[in-house]
Automatic annotation (TrEMBL):
Name listed for the protein in its UniProt record: tRNA (guanine-N(1)-)-methyltransferase
Claim: Methyltransferase is one of the keywords in the record: yes
Chief location of this protein within or outside the cell: cytoplasm
Top EC class of this enzyme: transferase
EC number(s) stated in the UniProt entry for this protein: 2.1.1.228
Gene Ontology terms for molecular function: tRNA (guanine(37)-N1)-methyltransferase activity
Any one of the GO BP annotations: methylation
Swiss-Prot/TrEMBL catalytic activity: guanosine(37) in tRNA + S-adenosyl-L-methionine = N(1)-methylguanosine(37) in tRNA + S-adenosyl-L-homocysteine + H(+)
Assembly notes: Homodimer.
Protein's job: Specifically methylates guanosine-37 in various tRNAs.
Annotated PANTHER family: TRNA (GUANINE-N(1)-)-METHYLTRANSFERASE
């Protein structure tokens, strides 16, 4: 997969190439990441890329010409253009799973007070937000996407379980996890995890995953289709967590 980032701050994004999972995805040729400096397409020798908004108002807008020419410098028939914007649909795990199946995504980053709307209407496939707050530009949002997509690419994580098991993959939050030592300052790991009984552990983890979701993100349960086992556990949790004999 290829990701092209169109930005006024290519050095900011370039840094991500050297780290952790994203770095590995790149070095193993599973991800190609390029940064295009929108200023290379500036309208004059002063490298101007912004101007005052027609009709007045605060701040400066990024102009159409440098952006469109930056898009055209990387776009092919298999590319999709995404504009990072607080007006976009809020990013979630489902969207990251869709993005990782694209051949080439172009992430357009705005700055100043935004960009000329003709770009959005005519050259952008979709706007993406990373949350209901306003950042100074789209670069951090692009980095969130690069990070979130890299780890989903085939072969990047050691095993598929690494993400099929975790929060948001199946619409629930992940169960709590523990590692050695077994006890620290009187804080013990739940005995059941040391029992070696895989079926009991599976049920325990499912219950704790549902408990976590109910306590921390009850809104997720509205969109989740629960199977019979999950419904039974949830009912038990809602009735005060009394032991229902599941484990
Ligand atoms: N640019 C500014 N704010 C943003 C946000 N919340 N998400 C994505 N891009 C942005």
């Amino acid at each position: 997969m290829k990701i092209s980032v169109l930005t006024l701050f290519p050095d900011f994004i370039e840094n991500i190439k050297d780290f952790s999972i994203v770095g590995r995805a790149i070095s193993e040729n599973r991800l190609a990441l390029e940064c295009i400096d929108i200023r290379d397409f500036a309208i004059n020798k002063y490298l101007q890329v912004d101007d005052y908004p027609y009709g007045g108002g605060p701040g400066m807008l990024m102009q159409i010409k440098p952006i469109v020419e930056a898009i055209e410098s990387v776009k092919t028939e298999n590319s999709k253009v995404y504009y990072m914007s607080p007006q976009g649909k809020v990013l979630n795990q489902k969207k990251l799973n869709e993005l990782k199946n694209e051949e080439h995504i172009i992430l357009l980053n705005g700055h100043y007070e935004g960009i000329d709307n003709r770009v959005i209407e005519n050259y952008v496939d979709e706007e993406i937000s990373i949350g209901d707050y306003v950042l100074t530009g789209g670069e951090l949002a692009s980095m969130v996407i690069i990070d979130g997509v890299s780890r989903l690419l085939d072969g990047v994580l050691a095993s598929e379980d690494s993400f099929t098991d975790e929060s948001h993959y199946n619409g629930l939050l992940e169960h709590p996890q523990y590692t050695r030592p077994r006890e620290y300052r009187g804080l013990a790991v739940p005995d059941i995890l040391l029992s070696g009984d895989h079926e009991k552990i599976r049920k325990y983890r499912l219950k704790e995953s549902l408990r976590n979701t109910l306590n921390k993100r009850p809104d997720l349960l509205k969109n989740k289709k629960l199977n019979e086992e999950e419904k039974k556990i949830l009912k038990d949790l809602l009735e005060g967590g009394k032991d229902n004999g599941l484990y």
